Amino acid sequence: MLRATLKGMASRKARLVLTSLAVVLGTMFVAAAMVLTATMEKSVSGVIADAFTGVDAVVTSAEDPAAAQGNTPSATLIPADVLDTVRGVDGVDTADGDVSGQVNAIGDDGKLVGAFAPTIGFNWNDQSTGYNEIRDGRGPQADDEVIVSAQFVTDAGLSIGDTVTAYSYSADRADYEIVGVFGLSGDRDSLAGETQMGFTTAEAQRLLTQGENAYMTIYVTGDAATGDIADAIGADYRVQTGEEASEEAAEGFAAVADIMGYIFLGFGLVAVFVSVFLIINTFTIIVAQRQRELALLRAIGAARGQVVGSVLAEAAVIGVIASIAGLGLGVLLGWGLSQLVSSSAMGGLPVELEVPPTSLWALAVGIGVTVLSAIIPAVRASGVPPVAAMREAVNPPKPLRGITIAGLAVTAVGGVLVALGLTDNLGDLGLTGFLTGVGIAFVGITLLTPILSRPLVALLGAVMSWSFSGRLGKLNAGRNPRRTAITASALMIAVALVTGIATIVSSFKETTAELADQNLDSDLIVMGQQGANIPTFAPETLAEIKALPDVSAVGDMYGEFFGAEVDGRQTALLASEDLPTSLGIFSGTVAEGSADLPDDGLAVNESAAADYGVELGDTVPVTFADGTEVPLRVSAILDDALLTDGWWVAPAQIEHFTVPKPMQAYIQVADGADVDAVQDQVDDILADEPEVSVTNNADFVEQQTSQLDILLNSVQILLALAIIIAIIGVVNTLVLSVLERTRELGLLRAIGMTRGQARRMITVESVIICLFGAVLGIAVGIGLGWTVQQALEEEGLTSFALPWDLIVTYLVAAVAVGLLAAIAPAARAAKLNVLNAIAYE
Amino acid sequence: MPLANPPAPQLTRTRSAVTAANLWRAYGSGEAQVVALRDVSVQFASGAFTAIMGPSGSGKSTLMHCLAGLDTTDRGTVRIGETAITGLNDKALTKLRRDKIGFIFQQFNLLPTLTAEENILLPASIAGTKADPEWIARIIATLDLADRLTHKPTELSGGQQQRVACARALATRPEVVFADEPTGNLDTRSSGEVLRFLRRSVDDFGQTIVMVTHDPSAAAHADRVVFLADGQIVEDLHRPTADAVIDTMRGFENRVPLAGEAR
């Protein structure tokens, strides 16, 4: 029996290659995801372990840095006397205090160095030289000297002998002479794309600890027990061994690779899911072709089980071969992706290939999916009575009631899960519930596609029916709803996912545009990209902009986001040099009192006032981050408005802010003045402001949403994979159609259908199937996008917008795919030998 | 019946609808070669009903396929009306089949997606022309299909399906209708209906029909029966009766051993 199976397979190579390809692609992505994750983890932990070489213990603040973020940085600092205590512990050879944090440096081009990766400032000490290798020059010996990393030299365009300006959020600008350049061990310029500046300890503390003589971390060498050190310095500090600290640091870095791994795994699973349809269809074809052979086997005494076994054996052979190929290619892809991630996001980290044992799962998935998908056609094949199969192959259309009811039920279950997942009813499992729901809903909708195919195919076909061969193609497409549906479903899933994401992205864009439109009465905006530090600019710049002849009004905003308290509760504070003008530009209105605040005045929106239980004229204690405590009087209550909600203090209080500089300016250009010209003038004024730039409203919206476009493009590229599988599925189905209808085609050719007409007939069938899949996918995708938008409406995603340009693109692409998929089957139909086709049985 | 007289091309006063001259057709090569037609020359008169008979492998189907432009010939010429079809390319042959030839097959070969009426109008639809409605109405009335026009083939009996196929073959008023075992899949009653219609279409409409059959009673409806054996015409009967056909067949079955398989 196996022999007969293998021989049969050899005679159907092309079909098997197509099916295998689907399995290969799916397995490849699953394997690549696992290899990527494992490889990055290994590579990163290797590097981090290097960094901790020779470090025996690490002391940090016991305060969780993440939880402490809102507090003053001093909460996580280790005072200098603790370092002395550590040095005194028995067995401690050396102990070095480390100060590090983000700084801003201005590059050769006048803009901030490292737009995407941070610039890290730290204190250059003896410990630094173990892991860092001086390539040129020396370390800093005076407070106005700095040693920079090789990546800094590349990014900033500055090198030894040059002067660099740097500052931090708490320290003003200062100039430093670059006295040295260092690289990282392993001849690397950077760990993960970041740039580094090494200062003297005193200067690092001025920049990063607000001048306090304190450290973030203490690195200890020697054989002192961590317990002894902990006992000596008390419970405010955490003591780890070098190894523990290394692992913890590696985990943070590997998280990036993990996320990418999950994304790839997700797409791999989508590919596998889509492959299921293709495999089911292919085996249906193979079984149809073998129907007589199988019936003959049954007639001469093969049991049903043997027939099923024969088909499953074929599936297993394909599954094994394709999965092994997929695994091999997946390892290659995973390695390639690791290189890509390393060079683009990890500063050329040396990649150590790691093929984890878990990647064997990809093998199991590939084989399992293939065999499981083949079961349905196999069982169906074995159910054909021998005598029936020996006669002309007739496939009476089966009723669609059962499958439709099942589809409705499954879709409903999926929908409920999606709803629950999006409405926070599942707690931590929300995202899992949502994704599972989407998956289940896809299965349900797939079951519904046969019943949907009837009206939709008729409708789509009506457009194509202008020629007779087109009409025949339409009729053929509607002939076997199940097959048309399952073929189109593969395409539907891919299109639904991209359309869903595109819908969410366009809704975000629309929301942003509307926000800008409705709430912003300005022509130009001065602001910077949000980084770890909030971008600001000099207050004098604001005055210069106001002085421009064509500027009619300027709204401005200062902010204090950490460490301020109103009535004992932590909250952000806002300020404007000219609150009445700013309110006008931000579409804010005063409900009570006056926005022209006295020095001890306070303005607040209605909701916040109600929340704090304050009214006009009340006096409220306000504490600034610098520790100043003043009683302020509520002198204005503002109507709730998106951009003006919160506590506003008078300009006189700005000096107490951590960063007493404006964050944003909104410029109104005088009527009739040239906005572009004003933008150029403002641009000139901002030449010395590295953190911010001026944009017009349209660019502003574009800037706010550009990240989303990148996301959408990545998703589209990855889903192209699923689309390739779907195309293979369409080709398979068409080949099956041509095979099954050989006699019909022969007749049509015999009574005068030209080859061109025959080709057109198949092509129309193909295009209809693809369009059906695309239309369905677009509908499902819009539904998906709408659901998510509704769920996020509360969070501010207020507008729903359809990505019309993309929808049209997808429809055009579907037609193109249909034409492409039809090429081979149509050629086959056209080349058909009329005589053989008529004699074909 | 003696076989002494070698068959000669039939020269009649009427115009010839199909003419074959010195046809040769062989399949395969070397030792496996089977010669299906050996120097066959035959004419089919316009407005006549001719049956081609012969044992399995005699070459009767090959002859019909060559005459209808479905198969190529190795040597010799075929003319449909005034058109020589040997040497025509696929496109010209396709057009010729569409415009000048009608087909009736043993398996009916109706398109399952189309209604009976659409099947009848199929050749005109493919050509992108409009069929003559009066003519179509007349065929439909003759075949008694008026109340079956909106049915799909699966809703029709075998006899009804073959009648639809007959209507389709005649719909474009072709030069000649080739019928390949048209009653092979039908019961006696339906066979009779189909044969009587073919007869009537010759008598009433002047249609030319060439029918391949191995059923003597079917052949008896024809004006003339041409017998093939081993790729050659061995007998040519005019105004045959079923008994005469049976006698002839019995005659050469005794003399001619069964030939090898030909297509």
TrEMBL record, chain A:
Subcellular location, principal: membrane
Q: PANTHER family annotated for this entry?
A: ABC TRANSPORTER PERMEASE YTRF, MEMBRANE COMPONENT OF TRANSPORTER-RELATED
> Where does the record place it?
Cell membrane
**Similarity section:** Belongs to the ABC-4 integral membrane protein family.
UniProt keyword Cell membrane, yes or no: yes
Which keywords belong to this entry? Cell membrane, Membrane, Transmembrane, Transmembrane helix
Q: Which GO terms describe its molecular function?
A: transmembrane transporter activity
This chain belongs to which protein, by name? Putative ABC transport system permease protein
**What's in the GO CC field?**
plasma membrane
Locate the MacB-like periplasmic core domain: which residues?
Answer: 17-233, 484-684
| Record keyword Plastid present | no
Give the membrane topology, semicolon-separated if more than one. Answer: Multi-pass membrane protein
Q: Please list every transmembrane segment annotated in the UniProt record, as residue ranges.
A: 259-286, 307-338, 358-379, 400-422, 434-463, 484-505, 717-739, 760-786, 806-827
Q: What is the lineage of its organism?
A: Bacteria, Bacillati, Actinomycetota, Actinomycetes, Glycomycetales
Q: Which Pfam family name is an example for this entry? A: MacB_PCD
Name all ABC3 transporter permease C-terminal domain ranges.
Answer: 267-386, 717-833
Automatic annotation (TrEMBL), chain B:
GO molecular function per UniProt:
ATP binding; ATP hydrolysis activity; transmembrane transporter activity
The question of whether Coiled coil is a record keyword is answered with no
- Key words, A-Z: ATP-binding, Nucleotide-binding, Transport
The ABC transporter domain, residue ranges = 18-255
Q: Which InterPro entries match?
A: AAA+_ATPase, ABC_transporter-like_ATP-bd, ABC_transpr_LolD-like, MacB-like_ATP-bd, P-loop_NTPase
Q: One Pfam annotation, family name?
A: ABC_tran
Q: Which domain of life is it from?
A: Bacteria
Is DNA-binding there in the keyword field? Answer: no
The protein in question is named: Putative ABC transport system ATP-binding protein
Which residue windows are transmembrane per the record? Answer: none
* Example of a GO cellular component annotation carried by this entry: membrane protein complex
